[in-house]
Amino acid sequence: VSSPIESKVKESDTVVASICKQLQLDQTTALEVWRSLCQAWVERAEFKQKQLIESAIQKCNDVQAEAAMEYEMRLAVHQSRTQRVNQDVHNVRSAELMLHQHHVVAHCQHLEADLHEERSRFQDKQHALLEQLEEFTDKIEKYRIRLPEESSSSRLGVLNDEVQ
Question: Staple 20 to which of 30, 82, 123, 139, CB 3.0 to 4.6 Å?
Fold first, then answer.
């Protein structure tokens, strides 16, 4: 029993023998032509393989370079974004601090105004109390001078009338 490959080889040999007979070539010349065709095909295949490898390497290098450029561009874009975000945060924080400073200054001014007003009220009250003290002291002095001159019941009556 012959295998399918053996049968193909036999068919091929039969075809080659038939072609050689038609062309009037001897078998050695036919084999020489066949060998040079196969060698040319192998050389061409090796040349194409080298070309394909070089082309693939070049394509990989181009894609890598393009990816690196895109990465650099994105990095540059995001770096400027980062700087802008940092600047914006800084500006907002500065504005908040300035607003807080204005609130503190206004609060201190209101406190000073309230303290001046309270001091003025205190001084007015103190002045009124001093006047009342002088008045009271004058009355006591008058009563002290009159007390030895009058009798005790008449003194109590006069004091009672003046108090009411």
Answer: 30
